[in-house]
């Protein structure tokens, strides 16, 4: 049984109904899920597991905050967050996936890609940073590359964080207005809104063609940040942890997090 920083579940059940605020309840729930991730990582490190998490999504969908929440109490030595900069001329001369291979996890390690090789599935074709032929080659090769990784024993989780156009506009404006968020700003921010439909089309094709049984996509509705982060943690525990550990954590809310399926592109679960 997992507990947070506060009272044990048995003691908590005896507290008067009004003794805790909603903030206290949220913190206790967050603590419990983060503790489950710590317990999972202890198990993974002891077993020499290699785990790769891919966080993709629209601009301002909440990837950075979700990653911070997931990693807050994990091992610094065994957890790596990778956010590669703009490729150099040398990088562009490499086999496309070659740039990412040295960052893959070794035994006992967790690597998180904050954007990944899926730049070529979305940003690059929309912004003209790759040719149509390069884009097509990527969509063809990515499932093969990922199948090799998974067949080698690596555990791969791919998360697509979605956000509504209205909420994205609000968050992008906050980056301009809040000096503490200035480092999140990017020259590509303006294109996120101006080329919304292009990004939607690229997302749809990418999800359709790179969602496979060995490396499936899981979609997260990101307008409510706290709900998105909580359900991401739930999914990670259920996808990666032993059954006895996962049984102590609720399953993800399907209204927030769900496995990708083609119908999600048209039934309103993914933003248009």
Largest sheet: 6 strands, mixed
Percent helix, as a range, is 40-55%
What is the helix/strand order? HHEHEHEHHEHHHEHHE
Shape: globular
Q: Spell out the CATH superfamily.
A: P-loop containing nucleotide triphosphate hydrolases
Examine the secondary-structure arrangement and name the CATH architecture: 3-Layer(aba) Sandwich
Instruction: Determine the mean pLDDT.
Output: 93
Roughly how many Å apart are the termini? 41 Å
Low-confidence stretches: 1-18
> In terms of structural class, how would the helical and strand content be classed?
alpha/beta
Strand line-up in the sheet with most strands: 2-3-1-4-5-6
Supply the CATH class.
Answer: Alpha Beta
What proportion of the residues form beta strands (DSSP E)? 5-15%
**Alpha-carbon Rg, integer:** 19 Å
**The number of domains:** 1
In CATH, the topology is named: Rossmann fold
> What is the count of helical runs?
11
Total number of strands = 6
């Amino acid at each position: 049984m997992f507990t947070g920083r506060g009272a044990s579940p048995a003691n908590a059940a005896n507290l008067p109904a009004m003794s805790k605020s909603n903030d206290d309840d949220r913190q206790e729930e967050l603590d419990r899920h983060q503790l489950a991730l710590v317990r999972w990582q202890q198990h993974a490190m002891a077993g020499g597991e290699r785990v790769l998490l891919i966080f993709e999504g629209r601009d301002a969908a909440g990837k950075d905050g979700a990653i911070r929440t997931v990693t807050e109490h994990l091992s610094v030595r065994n957890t790596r967050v990778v956010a590669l900069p703009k490729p150099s001329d040398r990088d562009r001369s490499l086999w496309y996936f070659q740039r990412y291979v040295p960052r893959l996890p070794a035994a006992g390690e967790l690597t998180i890609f904050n954007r990944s090789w899926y730049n070529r599935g979305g940003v690059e074709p929309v912004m003209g940073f790759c040719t149509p032929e390069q884009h097509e080659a990527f969509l063809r090769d990515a499932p093969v590359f990922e199948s090799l990784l998974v067949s080698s024993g690596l555990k791969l989780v791919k998360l697509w964080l979605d956000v509504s156009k209205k909420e994205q506009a609000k968050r992008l404006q906050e980056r301009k207005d809040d000096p503490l968020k200035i480092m999140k700003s990017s020259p590509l921010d303006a294109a996120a809104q101006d080329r919304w439909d292009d990004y939607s089309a690229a997302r749809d094709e990418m999800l359709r063609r790179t969602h496979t049984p060995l490396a499936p996509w899981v979609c997260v509705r990101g307008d409510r940040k706290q709900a998105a982060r909580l359900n991401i943690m739930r999914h990670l525990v259920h996808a990666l942890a032993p059954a006895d550990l996962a049984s102590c954590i609720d399953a993800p809310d399907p209204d927030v997090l769900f496995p990708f399926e083609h119908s999600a592109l048209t039934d309103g679960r993914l933003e248009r």
